Amino acid sequence: MPSSTSNLCPKTPLRAQLTPGATAAWPICLGYLPIGLALGVLAQQAGLPWWAVGMMSVLVFAGSAQFICIAMLSAGATIPAMILTTFVINLRHTLMSSALALYLSNVRRSFLALFAYGITDESFAVNMTAFRDGHWNRHAALIVNQLANAVWVCATITGCLLGQFVPRGAFGIDYALTGMFICLLVFQLRGRLYLITGLLAGAISVGWYLFIPGDSYIVGASVTAATLGYFLQKHHRRSG
After folding, report:
1. pTM beyond cutoff 0.85
2. Are 40 and 157 in contact (CB under 8 A)?
3. Average pLDDT estimate for 100-110
4. What are the angstrom distances between the C-alpha of 28 and each of 31, 34, 120, 122, 125?
5. In 170-202, which positions are buried (b, 16+ CB within 10 angstroms) versus exposed (e)?
């Protein structure tokens, strides 16, 4: 059964508790640098000042939603449309938070609020894998979230400040987020069931996009594929 109990002794020095989190977070931070810079450049080209980009990164802290918001802003979308789209896209955080909650029982609400704020696709993947391995604790997981958050905010602001020196479409920055999610998907394919679920998600998202108007295909495909994957896993365990 999952447990929130740390494998570290309560008398363990704080540095010894934080070092594993920082060690696990640095690959995320390394990935956030180019993507954050790309977001900042696109935001500057869309007409946003650096302080607005900083506020967006602090208040939203969701790369995919921020990229989509900037694209909608460039296309002249209304504010209510951008807010609703961001809300729908970020609904996947409910699923990620529910999965991590299994390892954070009997934790203060103030800690949970701070932890939940920093959950992203990347930090979720790292923390979930570490929790499953059993050698992890909530303090290390919090460091992963917040260190990644700090790097993201700094990278987006820096990208916005440097955006005026970068030509439009240069360096393939519009592909940065797509490439990152492909890498995350590949690292999560740990078996045949995961591969089948991923293929189902891709097929459902394409069909949903073609036949149902709007941007609901992202959340719809994720929830549907995850549900089908759950039943496939349940069937596999029964037959095995």
Report:
1. no
2. yes
3. 88
4. 5, 11, 10, 7, 10
5. eeebeebbeebeeeebeeeeeeeeeebbbebbe
